[in-house]
Amino acid sequence: RKPVEKVEDVVENAAAKVADALSSHVPGAPGSGTPTVEEVTIPHDPLPPKGEQGTPDTRTPTGAETGAAPTANGQQGAYLTTAQGARLRDTDHSLKAGPRGPVLLQDHHLREKITHFDHERIPERVVHARGTGAHGSFTSYGTAAGLTRAAFLKKDAQTPVFVRFSTVLGSRGSADTVRDTRGFATKFYTDEGTFDLVGNNIPVFFIQDAIKFPDIIHAAKPHPDREIPQAQSAHDTFWDFVSLHTEAQHHTIWNMSDRGIPRSFRTMEGFGVHTFRLINNAGETVLVKFHWKPKLGVHSLTWEEAQLICGVDPDFHRRDLYDAIEAGAYPEWELGLQVFPDTPEETFAGIDLLDPTKIVPEELAEVQPVGRLVLNRTPTNFFAETEQVAFHLGNLPPGIDVTNDPLLQGRLFSYVDTQLTRLAGPNFPQIPINRPHAPVNDMLRDGFHQQAVHAGVAPYRPNSLDGGNPFEAGDAENAFVDVPVRVAEAPKIRANPVSFDDHFSQVRLFWQSMSPVEKEHIIAAYTFELGKCYEQAIKQRQLQCLANVDPLLCEQVAAGLGMPVPEPAQPVTEVTPSPALSQMGQTWPADGRIVGIVIGDEEPDGVASVREALIAAGMVPLIIAPHGGTIGTVTAQRTFATARSVEFDALLLAAAPPPAPDALPARDAKAAAADDVTVDPRVLLMVDEAWRHAKAIGAWGDGASVLDQAGIIGTPGVIATESGPETLDAVERFLGSHRVWQRFSTSMV
Ligand code: HDD
């Protein structure tokens, strides 16, 4: 019998054998067949912690306690550990049988690292997958305090919020500036429970009944065979559905207007769409519609800009929101209410308040400001906050209740339902971003991803074992109020009220409220979108819908498509326009606007002072230079290679940089070689595009010669003066109305 070896001897012998094998190995000569062994990489000692690595936050981004062990935050302690807290010596090499040997199954660290990575993705939202969010706070004016018992609407009440903006149709990685509706979802962490206002930047919806939501979304999403087009409504299935299903026509004309291509999330209105019911302490009720009014006004891109940005900077809106907040140009909105008497008919001025395809023009029911939202903090972690935030229309505080709008009723089901799959199980309200700031004392137990360690033995009511806790609240304790609305005695039926059958009068109302330039844009958008459809019958059917809206609109689109103009199938309705629907005609603060300043190889006069003046006015100056680095006292933030005009709201030229053929792509170098070109073609392209997109362009000093070369001197919104500050003054005036509207030629009246 062999003597039993001691464990230490076995280990020592094995180690010695490995060391021996490694040291005696002689790399083989080429072709000798002997494998070459690279030097063994020796695991190094961990580096000391970095200075900025502090102790982990024990609070969630919204200020609530995380409740989790500090190490759960990751990347903040001194030493790398496994998920179980064991310090790691090496995370770059798998555990192998020798440096060239197979990887061992026992390598727990390898398995943990790869397995976790393999499961990093969660399903994207079935709609509104592409979005971005920010934290902020809502301050109530107290003007709604007489209408609702909701405490967050009492005077001076401050409520933390998280807002997520989104597009509807595109996937998570799709471009921001596509033509689409934008989501505007706000989570108010009120002291009486979370209130989610899940709205859009368009005040009406495609359908009147939630049962049709899968239909409109299947039609609008990419075709099921080839999964194209991405994030677009310019395709056959979308126009097939909306032309057959004419209640969608109102939402569609908003999408075809400039509202479908916002300049920024900061320059969008938001709408709760549905009518809600408020109840006050006396038990009195009113019906209301929620509106968000942006401090900067409502502004849009031009269609060409939007298309260019999709390629040049697909994250344009996301970047814009982050940059504005980080620059201190905090985006702001006023929350407003349109208030209607709560009558049994639930109508106002003949408009059915339960029909989500109808607006109540602001001229008929003024939007009354009730508070101010300021977004002042970007998320710390996109996934944890923006991706995992979960909204639900049923998250209501006492004082706000739903109505019977059939679209709203279906939404009350859909949101929690979709989160169950998206966030895998019923405990997603415990995810930090979703945690209420009001104390939670529910009897929901267990389930996937349960974070709480519930004490007590009696999660049921009534009980005597946990002292009868918890108790039900009454009015005095601010219990939620289900407004006891009378339900009409009626047969069970799958039908809509007759008033829901009017599908065209408000489409015409919108069209008639537009300025000539906005009408031109709408015609161009329909012509583009239908021009992308293949089926003649679909185009014809949509033209028929437009004929029911307005003969001129129909004629012009038909002309663009080269198709016959149909007769209206029903008389075109007389409407009173609502000027509030137009985006033009007012002036707005220029805060947060991006102004590009072109300089040359040397710092031109006036640049530093113009830069300072822009910052002082709350705008963001970006220096555009021939190359990176520092030029005089300023630093180049963009170069001629990285800048495109679409990024800027206005362009200033402080120099006329000459062509630099060596730095140019071949095509531009050829253009620059032309005799009469004395300015870098990339600068000329910027000026040309800025001019086409009706942006203010200013120049001083040598910069004026660029305007000359571009052939735009003397045209509206093109300013050349002797000094930078003087030029800036004139440019700022144009920024107030967003664009140089006169530059869009229009034959419309
Ligand atoms: Fe919806 C997400 C807005 C109708 C079903 N919706 C979602 C989001 C917004 C809206 C802004 C993104 C929330 C976020 O950022 O996480 N939806 C609206 C508006 C509607 C509307 C303004 C009409 C007035 N939605 C609607 C209907 C249904 C849904 C009729 C279903 C019957 N919506 C959903 C959803 C989503 C969603 C499937 C996808 C991801 C999510 O909920 O959390 O449940």
UniProtKB/TrEMBL annotation:
Reactions catalysed according to its record: 2 H2O2 = O2 + 2 H2O
PROSITE patterns cross-referenced by the UniProt entry: CATALASE_1, CATALASE_2, CATALASE_3
EC category: oxidoreductase
InterPro entries associated with the record: Catalase, Catalase_AS, Catalase_clade2, Catalase_clade2_helical, Catalase_core, Catalase_haem_BS, Catalase_immune_responsive, Catalase_large_C
Cofactor needs: heme
Entry EC no(s): 1.11.1.6
Keyword DNA-binding assigned: no
SMART domains: Catalase (SM01060)
Keyword vocabulary terms for this entry: Heme, Hydrogen peroxide, Iron, Metal-binding, Oxidoreductase, Peroxidase
Domain called Catalase core: residue spans: 81-469
UniProt region (Disordered), positions on chain: 21-76
Compositionally biased spans, kind Low complexity: 60-72
Coiled-coil ranges from the UniProt annotation: none
Pfam families attached to this UniProt entry: Catalase, Catalase-rel, Catalase_C
Function: Decomposes hydrogen peroxide into water and oxygen; serves to protect cells from the toxic effects of hydrogen peroxide.
Family recorded in the similarity comment: Belongs to the catalase family. HPII subfamily.
Protein name, as recorded: Catalase
